[in-house]
Design a protein that fits this description.
The structure holds two protein chains of two kinds. By secondary structure, chain A is an all-alpha fold. Chain A is built from 21 helices and no strands. Chain A has one domain: Amino acid/polyamine transporter I, CATH 1.20.1740. In chain B, the strands form five sheets. In chain B, strands 2, 3, 4, 5, 6, 7 and 8 form a seven-stranded mixed beta sheet that branches. The chains are: A mainly alpha, B alpha+beta.
Chain lengths: ~450, ~425
């Protein structure tokens, strides 16, 4: 026996010398490319989930009401969104923990409860808005909402709970591609490109209530609190480590720029088609007109498909993100691959949000577009709470080691927090005080 | 019974009852005890933290702390070896409950006074414990069940303080099945998951790693001390070890392979050249081969003498003599036991058998194993020499859809 062993050993050595390791390595490298493609995802999905029903309603309204004047906002918003998303993705990769986990471990129970409450309200509102989006989209097809909304709710629930996670993500991503129609429409509408350029580089601002409302809604819909939680959780679930992190950073920034580019085209196309004729957006059909240059009389159909896809995408992501946070914060089992018995709180929260979102959206006579905008404003108002916590955590050297923010990065991030907080407070003050004064 | 949340932030009074500081943290010393004793308190006064040793404390309850003197040592607090700060290291952190086989988050810590010592008896993981800390003091009723994990069942404490790992934790974890350890380690953050694996002894660490995804195995072994990683690799089955090495960066893989002991190193090195989607990549070199001239009785005796029998001994592979690897036939262990001890193996063995070629694709091989209901399939080269065997569990991994595989332990366990 010993001789055999010796023979085998030398055979092994021979193979080694012939570069045996190299063979397996080409395979390993091929595999690593697959890993890369699999990792390329969280940032892209999250940023684009921001372009949901509430997002489309907000940006279409911005274009219709203010024309190209507010385009400049998109530049600071790209930077802020990218920075915020990147910080959370980085925390996920470096610590291997979700945002709610970290909040609980660093700040204790009471601050966690406050942040979770803010998140629950914001996410509950946005979930409602997603189902409102589904209602608006299907009503353009002539399908009554008390039929389509429950059906959509059941499908979303089934996709997430029963389907495999990656398959779900691919379905979501595919749906969000419908937005590309806005890009074509923006070009075909023949916008005044000089005016577009001016709007992009010349900031205009006012303290009117309608202006602040729009501003907070834009911020709330692009940098929604749930997106931070979601991006971090998916980075953790994908098993990204500090070493793999550079790929994820690329993913986050590419996703951010892609998402904002689409926002840009939504605003341009609505400005060029609706603002020119002084049309305000009151219903989904108004918003659909912005697609006439590309789709003609099929504009409503195309818009409905886009709105439906986007709403379905976020209607799954959002309750999922909320369920993640709450389970993380309270220390319950989590993950879509778990069964109901293993993770009752996780799947329970998810199911509850889908059900409640759908239930509110079928209320007859709901002013759909207005509801969409208001939910985004609630997001914007609660955002500073989450951002403040994120910044405290990401700069915690004990937690992040050498991965804390650099000074320039911190300035940009804190500036985002301060500006968002200031705008939210200004909006609240202007909204509350006229009422107080007029009794 | 006392809860940590009821003590934190409460006043510390001296002999005269004068308030001198507030409780910032409670220190326990880990040792042999199942329920570690309180070793002192971190007191806070005017933004300064200092240490109050156990022997100065006469009372510890909901009203706070009472000292036995009015002299305070105000030197700043520094953590010592094997000390755990309950608020900082335990509260709100995750731990592995060995009894319930799960990862939980600590909502509160239970302290009980027994024989003039305050001891940590358990971790409160119930909603009740959460509510106790959330609600304003006095608002809190005693209704609701309190779910407490006995401190002696704490297998691992997921804290960032490196010095506080429980000494006995790896023994407790070792009581669990490697599949369970792997699942618990995966539920923690990846840093803590690695720490869990590292705390186990080599053999259990190897078995636990084998239950994890290859990328994860590679990450954990890659971050570990090289000598230790090589020791664990030696305990792993050669095919698993080869898969992990294939997933590591080239220099790292070569270094680890170089550190492995002769025999195990050779076994793994032999498997490395095969791509992992072929029969060669799937096979293990651990199998029993017997020369055909042995009798059944001698063969059984040889099996008993083997220092380390491979996992798979249900099939015995009969080769063409002591120095040959040329596969002649297969004997199932069952027929070997039932056969007459004096008959030669050549008479008992089956000469008609299924085999795979090293270059066959993995799915081809897996289907063959499923089709013929085999527990293992020998892999041969052009000359008909046996190179290794593919066992049914590896074939299952190819055949079953991905999320099925994740649910397997629950379906069958």
């Amino acid at each position: 026996m010993a001789e055999h062993r010796a023979a085998v050993r030398s055979a092994g050595r021979r193979l080694l010398r012939r570069g045996a390791l190299g063979v397996r390595h080409t395979v390993a490298r091929r595999k690593r490319l697959m890993v890369y493609l699999a990792i390329l995802g969280p940032g892209m999905i999250t940023a684009n989930a921001g372009n949901d029903a509430g997002g489309i309603a907000t940006f279409a309204s911005v274009g219709a009401e203010f024309g190209y004047r507010l385009l400049w906002i998109l530049i600071p918003i790209t930077i802020s969104l990218g920075i915020v998303q990147e910080m959370c993705a980085r925390m996920g990769a470096v610590t291997g923990k979700g945002l709610a986990d970290l909040i609980r471990e660093r700040f204790g129970v009471r601050p966690t409860a406050i942040v979770m409450l803010a998140l629950l309200i914001a996410n509950g509102g946005v979930t409602v808005s997603e189902f409102v989006g589904i209602a608006a989209a299907t009503e353009l097809f002539g399908l009554p909402r008390f039929f389509s909304v429950p059906l959509a709710a059941i499908s979303v629930w089934w996709l997430v709970v029963k389907g495999s996670y990656q398959r779900v993500e691919r379905v979501f991503l595919l749906m969000s591609l419908v937005f590309l129609a806005y890009v074509v429409s923006a070009f075909l509408a023949g916008p005044d490109w000089t005016a577009v350029g001016n709007g992009l580089v010349k900031p205009t601002f006012s303290f009117e209530q309608s202006f602040l409302f729009t501003f907070v809604a834009i911020v709330g819909t692009t940098i929604s609190p749930y997106m931070q939680v979601y991006v971090q959780s998916s980075v953790v679930e994908k098993g990204v480590t500090a070493e793999d992190y550079p790929k994820t950073r690329t993913d986050v920034w590419v996703g951010t720029i892609f998402a904002i580019a689409i926002v840009f085209f939504i605003v341009v196309s609505t400005a060029a088609t609706l603002h020119k004729y002084g049309i305000r957006i009151e219903t989904a059909a108004d918003a659909a007109r912005a697609l006439r240059p590309v789709a003609g009389r099929y504009a409503e159909t195309l818009f409905a498909v886009g709105l439906f896809g986007a709403s379905m995408l976020a209607a799954g992501v959002l309750p999922l993100a909320t369920a993640y946070s709450i389970s993380e914060a309270l220390g319950f089992e989590k993950g879509v691959s778990r069964s109901f018995r293993e993770a009752p709180i996780f799947l329970g929260t998810f199911t509850f949000l889908v059900a409640v979102g759908a239930a509110i959206a079928v209320i007859p006579g709901l002013p759909l577009i207005r509801v969409l905008l208001v939910t985004q404003v609630i997001n914007g108002l609660l955002l500073p709470v989450v951002l403040f916590v994120v910044l405290r955590l990401v700069n915690d050297r004990e937690l992040m080691g050498s991965y804390v923010n650099g000074p320039l990065y911190n300035i940009a991030a804190w500036l985002t927090v301060i500006v968002v907080t200031f705008l939210s407070l200004a909006y609240l003050a202007i909204t509350i005080f006229p009422h107080l004064l007029t009794g | 019974m006392l809860y940590l949340s009821q003590v934190l932030g409460r006043p510390i009074r001296d002999l005269e009852g004068e308030r001198v500081a507030t409780v910032k943290d409670v220190i326990v010393r880990l040792g042999e005890d199942d329920h570690p004793p309180v070793a002192g308190i971190v007191a806070r006064y005017r933004r300064r933290d200092f240490f109050v040793p156990r022997w100065r404390i006469t009372e510890l309850n909901e009203q706070g702390v009472r000292l036995n003197s009015d002299i305070l040592d105000l030197r700043p607090f520094e953590r010592r070896e094997a000390e755990v700060l309950l608020a900082r290291d335990v509260l709100d952190k995750q731990l592995i409950d060995v009894d319930g086989k799960r990862v939980v988050r600590v909502n509160d810590v239970q302290i009980i006074q027994a024989a003039a010592e305050w001891r940590v008896t358990g971790a409160d993981v119930s909603l009740q414990g959460l509510w106790r800390r959330l609600a304003p003091t006095g608002f809190f009723g005693t209704r609701g069940t309190v779910e407490v994990i006995d401190w002696s069942d704490v297998g691992y404490l997921a804290t960032d303080a490196a010095t506080v790992q429980l000494k006995s934790s790896s023994d407790k974890l070792a009581r669990l099945h490697p599949v369970e350890i792997a699942r618990l380690a995966e539920a923690l953050s990846y840093h803590h998951g690695s720490e869990v694996v590292e705390s186990l002894d080599d053999e259990i660490a190897a078995e636990t790693l084998e239950e994890m995804a290859v990328q994860q195995q590679a990450r954990i072994l890659g971050d570990m001390d090289e000598e230790r990683a090589a020791d664990i690799l030696e305990w792993m089955s050669p095919d698993e070890a080869a898969d992990v090495l294939g997933d590591l960066p080239e220099e790292k893989a070569e270094e680890l392979l170089g550190l492995m002991e002769g025999e195990e190193q050779a076994d793994v090195a032999e498997l490395l050249p095969y791509a992992d989607d072929t029969a060669g990549g799937l096979m293990t070199t651990e199998f029993v081969s017997l020369p055909h001239e042995l009798t059944v009785g001698e063969a059984l005796a040889r099996l008993r003498e083997m220092a380390e029998t491979p996992n798979m001994i249900y099939y015995l592979y009969v080769v063409d003599g002591e120095d040959s690897w040329n596969l002649q036939g297969i004997i199932a262990l069952r027929s070997l036991i039932l056969a007459d001890p004096d008959s030669p193996l050549a008479e008992v063995m089956r000469t008609e058998f299924q085999s795979a070629h090293v270059d066959d694709t993995a799915s081809e091989v897996a289907h063959k194993i499923a089709e013929y209901n085999l527990l293992a399939l020998p892999v041969v080269d052009e000359a008909g020499d046996i190179l290794g065997i593919i066992t049914v569990d590896d074939a299952m991994e190819i055949l079953l859809p991905k999320d099925w595989r994740q649910r397997l332990p629950k379906l069958f366990g």
